[in-house]
## 1
Amino acid sequence: MDEGCSRIRRRVSVRKRNRRSLESVFAALTAAELKPGDEEKEDEDEETVAGSRRRKTMDVQPVENIDSEEDMFGDYDSFAENSFLAQVDDLEQKYLQLPEHRKHATDHATEDLCSESIKHNTLSITTVGDCTELKIDAHTKNQSGHEDVSIDPEADVLYDIPSSQVLFFENLYNSSNDLGDPSTEERDWNSSSHKTVNEELPINNVEQPQQTDESSSKVRTSSDANRRKSLKDHLKNTMTGNAKAQTPVFSRTKQLKETLLSEEINVAKKTIESSLDDLGPFYSLPSKVRDLYVQFKGIEKLYEWQHACLTLNSVQERKNLIYSLPTSGGKTLVAEILMLQELLCRRKDVLMILPYVAIVQEKISGLSSFGVELGFFVEEYAGSKGKFPPIKRREKKSLYIATIEKGHSLVNSLIETERINSLGLVVVDEVHMIGEGSRGAILEMTLAKILYTSKTTQIIGMSATLNNVEDLQEFLQAEYYTSQFRPVELKEYLKIKDTIYEVDSKAENGMTFSRLLNYKYSDTLKKMDPDHLIALVTEVIPNYSCLVFCPTKKNCENVAEMICKILSKEYLKHKEKEKHEVIKNLKNISNGNLCPVLKHTIPFGVAYHHGGLTSDERKLLEEAYSAGVLCLFTCTSTLAAGVNLPARRVILRAPYVGKEFLKKNQYKQMIGRAGRAGIDSTGESILILQEKDKQQVLELISRPLENCYSQLVQEFTKGIQTLFLSLIGLKQKILLKERSLWEITVESLRYLTEKGLLQNDTILTEKGLLQKDTIHGSEEEFQYSFHITKLGRASFKGAIDLAYCDNLYRDLKKGLEGLVLESLLHLIYLTTPYDMASQCHPDWMIYFRQFSQLSPAEQNVAVLVGVSENFIGKKASGQAIRKKVDKNIVNRLYLSFVLYTLLKETNIWSVSEKFNMPRGYIQNLLSGAAAFSSCVLHFCEELEEFWVYRALLVELTKKLTYCVKAELIPLMEVTGVLEGRARQLYNAGYKSLMHLANANPEVLIKTIDHLSRRQAKQIVSSAKLLLHEKAEALQEEVEELLRLPSDFPGIVASSIEKA
């Protein structure tokens, strides 16, 4: 090609047309880049294949650079009377007179027909250096196969020029709104001259004139040709603009990469649009999901009931579903597959609600690997963790795993920001908890709000212990599926004295004789073990595992010690090395400390498991039990509802939980731990009972499960009042039909108004508008209008218990008068949970000792809150106190001392010893304070007067959440990494999140003591997921900063003009 000139020639290419009017008709296709250096080679190739195509060649004359727009193309004959553009102009006039070209159907059949033609025909206007090319490409083939067949223009006007031009100006005429304004048109085309414009128009093969006529007859044109701009003028303006344009220098590699990326995005979008809900053979999921289940969980095949449940019509139609199966039946796997379908196929976010923090963390560890492999985020909403509202993701979707309380706050924030429809699925594990106290009331509120505000969100509830399913079905508008399937058969037994009976529902009294215990007891042994526990446990340990459920925490420790005193020394030899390793690791995570009971029992393979253990200890013992190093746990009932630790035999030490008689739900959950799928052929449960309890136990095993009832009214401040406050805060209507509900509503709204959380505006009566100070009257007479106050909004946004919200406000207000910042004590006091203070019983001598060790500034905090040293001294010495002091304030300050000491020392063992408190209780206090501190932070964010607390509470919440040295905090952000493990990793050189995310699991196993391969992979996966999450958040922040605001004045003005 001569330098500084333009030319017209034909070539075959596949390029994409970027004009908006064409995109509405044709599918967007991939842009292919042409390198300038290849043009001469293409010319030679075209001559080689000349025998297969019809070509028209026009002479090209060099053009001088002339500034005048009129003379720019003076020496170029393309605007002469017999030129190509003249032919175009003539053709345009002829074409407008043809009636058969007046219609054009814009459907995909045209696209399909076009794609089957010999080649796509392309109009490509390309700017290269200082030279502009106008390339008109046509690949046509005549019927006889000869070259250069002359066709009379009068025979068919479509043959005057390449057929790509026909569709070009046909579509041009279709876009009167786009091209009617010459200034807009010229601006658009001139701007396009600064970059490569690839325009692609698929057309029909011109072999058959009939096909051409049929396709062209579909083209709709306007009869008013005077409104159009002449194509000749249009092309001339374009060429003028191209010639005048200063062409920037582009990186060819960058352009090729962008083209490739554009192609991949288009293909992905087409794939998603064409097969939205079906991405593969594994229940509409890619086969990779099935492979991941084999790799991560060893699950190769689903149970029949799981397949049946997943293929239910109600599930396919996305109806709400409740399904119930015995414990260990595999309920969670069904829920996980449904969640993955929602995340990957329907591209919606998912919320999973679990009852306890420990289970949330376990589930996050298990699903993080799937998130990394399949491209979705797994976010923790438990304790002090979680953002409200959640981060709005660009591409990837999020799986929120939350406790009941955090799940409620999450749903509130989504409703408030009008994003509730982004939640495609809500899964509730242990849905029967809807009938259990204040937590049940919160769960019921959460589900009710989802049902009321989002018609597209599916709700899945699962439980092992449901009875009145019909009531729950009606509430959730759900289908029901149940099965009695258990992967391992469960046999239930009762033990009275030394006789064991099998539970048999067909028998007259519900049980039949099974066997007598065959174990020789001396008189001394009988006194030590009157319930014959040794006889029962030695039948299964050490080769199989056993769980012994005890009524109280103290009883757990006593039973574990008693068993180890009686067991023979042979038990010490079983996995001796591994047990020593467990003891060593327990010491490492506890700064050299070790519980004396565990020190005695672990060598025998026995340990206790209850809330008195720290999280680190509990996690390490659970891992040792799962690995078979420990074979016997003595535990409380909380283990049954918590982490999954199955056993060959489950023994219930007594039919009591604490001092209360066992409930059927609790009994079913405990015995459900018997039988390990894939390991045991059968599972056994043995309930030990005394003769006096026999009748009650027989009634227990024969009666149905307890019904599940609403707790909204029973739990007043955490139930119906919280519901009304949040509904008014979220501007939702309250619709009441029943009389009793009206009375409850009146009482609740009066309470909220008296607390200052709501303000009553006006009451509409038949006689007109009246301002009322009190709430009264009947449903027929009044329609109440309320709006939420600032305090009310702060309370519901912070999820503060309404029983304490006014106390919190007063305490924070009083704190502003003299906030002591010389130490953390004052802030810690303000974030100490009120409910834990009411249950506290201080040791007055310890209280006085700690008080006397305070600095003057710290003692000033005590004076500010209203507790004097004199009062504590009198209580410690047992003297009578005449002056009345608020007990809750005194108790709360005592707990503040515990937390303050813990933050200073970060050693839970020394604090436990100093305050004579169980280390597990102190850790629960710490996690409770971290969660409450997070709530107080959200509370203060809604009240401008408390601005000073915001920055302070952010840091305090972080300190309370981790309670470790600052260098360990980044490692502890990873789910499943607690203090002990974080210290091990830090000492091994893994000092940041990036280090963990890039770690090799095999190297970790060798470097870190007592770390299994599964745990190592989970830690690395969790770290990767967290790192991707943070990177994504930063990218979104950058894009948000660079994005043109939607309310930008120019945009608003132009939108008004268009309207």
Note: The mean pLDDT is 77.
## 2
Amino acid sequence: MWLKPEEILLKNAFKLWVTEKDNEYFILQRRRGYGEGGGGLTGLLVGTLDTVLDSTSKVAPYRILHHTPDSQVYWSIACGVTKEEIFQHWDWLQQNIMRTLSVFDSSEDITSFVQGKIRGLIAEEGKTSLVLEDDPEKFREALLRFEKWFELPPEEKLVTYYSCSYWKGKVPCQGWLYLSTNFLCFYSYLLGAEVKLVISWDEMWRLEKTSNVILTESIHVLAHGEDYYFSMLLHLNETFVIMEQLADYSIKRLFDKEAFQRVPALSDPLQITKRGLEAHAKSEQFRTFFRLPKEENLLEVHESFLWVPFSHFNTLGKICLSENYLCFASQDGSQCHIIIPMREVVNVEKPDSSSRALTVCVRGKRALRFSEVRDYQRLANTIRSRCGISASPQHSASSEVSRSKCRFTLYSSLLFSLWFAKDSSKAVSTEALMTVFHPQDVENLDPKMLKEKMKEQSWNIHFSEYGRGTSMFFTRKTRDLIVRGVPEALRGELWMLFSGAVNDMATHPGYYTELVEQSLGTSTLATDEIERDLHRSLPEHPAFQSDTGISALRRVLTAYAYRNPKIGYCQAMNILTSVLLLYAKEEEAFWLLVAVCERMLPDYFNRRIIGALVDQAVFEDLIRENLPQLVEHMTDLSFFSSVSLSWFLTLFISVLPIESAVNVVDCFFYDGIKAILQLGLAVLDYNMDALISCHDDAEAVTILNKFFDSVTNKDSPLPPTVQQASVGNNDKASHISVDISELIREAYEKYGNIRSEEVESSRKRNKLYVIQTLEDTTKQNVIRVVSQDVRFNASQLDELYNLFKRQHFLSCYWTMKSPALLHHDPSLAYLEQYQLGFQQFSVLFSLLEPWAFCTTKSTLSLWVFRLIDENQDGLVNFKEFCCALDTLYSGSFTNKLKFLFKLHLPPGYMPLWSLFTCRLYVSAFDLPEDGVIKKSPERGRGKVDLQAYLKQWQNEILKKEETIKDLPRINQTQFIQFSKTLYNIFHGDPEEELLYRAVAHVTSLLLRMEEVGRRLQEPSSPPESAKPASTTAAEESSTEEASTTPESSDTSSSHNSQDAGPDLSETEWSFSFEQVLASLLNEPAIVSFFERPVDIQAKVGQARVAQLKESRTS
């Protein structure tokens, strides 16, 4: 590798280098401790220096220096890991530089020319390099060490590296931590003790920051059942964020495909950089805080003051700019924040240079003044360009044009909606169901209605001070009003605003009506489930006892299933959507559902409800932290996880009366999942004494159910028929009623200090554990099923499953379009979730096969693959793989021979062109036209053929075990190949010669038996002279086979078959399995070879070590 020329003074340097080659201008040196004579104390000291110090000259074992005869100064210009690499550089210098240097007169000119040439070479390399780091030179050095120490496949992308200590027991090992796309690696070398770790991100169970008495602050990693601690990091927080991002990226890409979104910055695992990860993390945090669409990315951040009119002072904070939004948050994040869509900006006034201020004018005659902005001029120009506002005096005209375009778009959308509404079956409701089924009586002046009017007045005052709509200020006062309760008339509007759904709907006019038109009438698994649950959604509410409410619910759920087939439809979505439809218009309810499912509750509504399980783990952590008395009494907190699942999935709607549940939904749309966690803690705290005195889980469940039934909303203006709609058992006599507003207020007072950032961090930390727990459950289920059909014990199956799954992932690491990655579908049965295509199978089978084959392994692997691939879909599952290995390792002599015999029958063995078809088979089955081998339809757009599944299950139950009489006869070509396979199996065995003779004897015997049998079936006997001739030929062929060397066995076998052919009848001869078995049983050497036990544990251990290297070479 060429290096940026650096000056080195050799006169005072230690004697750490040995000169290998030199000439007038260049010296090639080898580092002491490497290559020949590299042992001893010198090698230990040099190796220690190479690990601890960060310098290319002290890491690479070879280097090239430039010097001139009349100078004591040397310049390092190249280094190399191997002798071949450095010799290539040396030869290039000899051929391209040496002749040119003779034309220069002075040493300075020579050095200047060499330095310029080397820098030019580095610049050329940089054009095609994937390295996009702050210091490319140091990164090149680190990349060199990374490749040298860990020998990972060349496609593996190093993201960043840090100096740190790894604690091996109580002893710290100083070394280097390397973070790549798929692996966490650590290397240390101190005084002969080498420590090397390679941990893949998908194997991690825990990743967290910890501290204790010995380690003030460290990063803890749990993988393979072992704990790893890394400390003494100069930038620990930065390191942890990068590790968290890489682990999350790997988990989503490999395990959680339902939630994986291809982010442009992370779309290609070979292009991921530290800078890209950091930008992605900031954008994710930015979107979460301001509830923005997932397409938005944080582009610029400016520190500034914002004039807050309601407080009459400037508050310090940060301006955050994305593609379509201008946002501001005060420094503490809670005092106030504001979101301004670019579509609302009408003008950016000329900046004030004296105070470095700019004023942004928005619709509604409002203006926001930002001051003390460092780069105010550029920010003003950026906002103008993104809003389409000209800086010239004609800016008002251009903005008017843009507003006209916007009006035209909305007008077109309105016309489309009116036309669309002509079909009553698809008519989209334009009113919230609550206004239709429970219109407010203006003249009603009962106390509840008066209080409702007071709430509305409070909110109107708030709007007048803080603004209304998309550019409203969010402050502490806003939260206080939310906690007290939102008026019925404003609930839909505020839900849209707080969730960010108002922006989604504004930027997608006409989208919902188009979806409804496309989705209604389709028949999928999702639509079947929707129809089944329509009448279970708030069944006692009048709105859902009529066709109006049911039809609106059907349209929203079907449209969403069509929009997002990865989720499709999940139970609990119907309950949530029903409540949304009560207070929001139909299209608004759809966008609220989008906001909940795709942003606010990520991964909740899929087959494995991973998001809900993660938040339950977060809830358990908060219980330990905030309710220690409860933890002391109930050490197993899994009870709360099972009880609280419905709380999270339905936002308490399924357990609380509807008039109380909507207050919880108010808080959720403002504060997110934090509001649900706070309320959950408040519920447990309220029932603390009763829960502590419980004797079993059933009693605790009863206490909580009675508590929820007693929760009321004394201020609700809804009539009794509606209030009772969601309460199954309203026995409140034994329980004192609790007002929902008081309960929510208590939750905010006691647990309001929980920060959203801490919740998000806890989510990421627990997601690893939840995913790995689900994966472990899958593994245990698979092992339980497979163990019934094989003789491997549970420990061996566990090891084999880990190897199988790892092989599946090794083909996914370095490409987005890996066949194995595309085939993985968490919605499939346990056995089908991880499968191997032929290429992955071939690598793993070659590592675990009990015998060493001297022939090309891919050919035999192909035959085995075809044989065990029962449904011929080009994929092998773990059960099929284990059954084949079990036969080869633990089967009887008969079963092993039967397996080998079947390999040479279709579909295993094909004619002579099978070597050619091996490649065709790989390409045909590993990646079909659309890139995916369909094992099951997507949940939203396809119907599962249940009859086909039942028929397959019945066939498996009724399938009888195959007997040796069921096997077809093996023909001439197949028998020759069978003989070759036996020769190849015996290759390298201590009894090799004896085994070869035994096979030759069996072959000769079978040929004689076939000839005799055929002669007996002929109507007339052949001439007497033909019989001895034929017999003699068979004896000579068997003798010749026995005397051949292993290398020529294939050729001799082929010649023998050709020689024997003319002596027999024109019809091809064939053998039954009973004939082959009987003949081989007469050879003790062959029987003892196949009955010899093979240590599966040793094979698995060797495969575990070699698996990554095999994938590197394959």
Note: The longest strand covers residues 158-168.
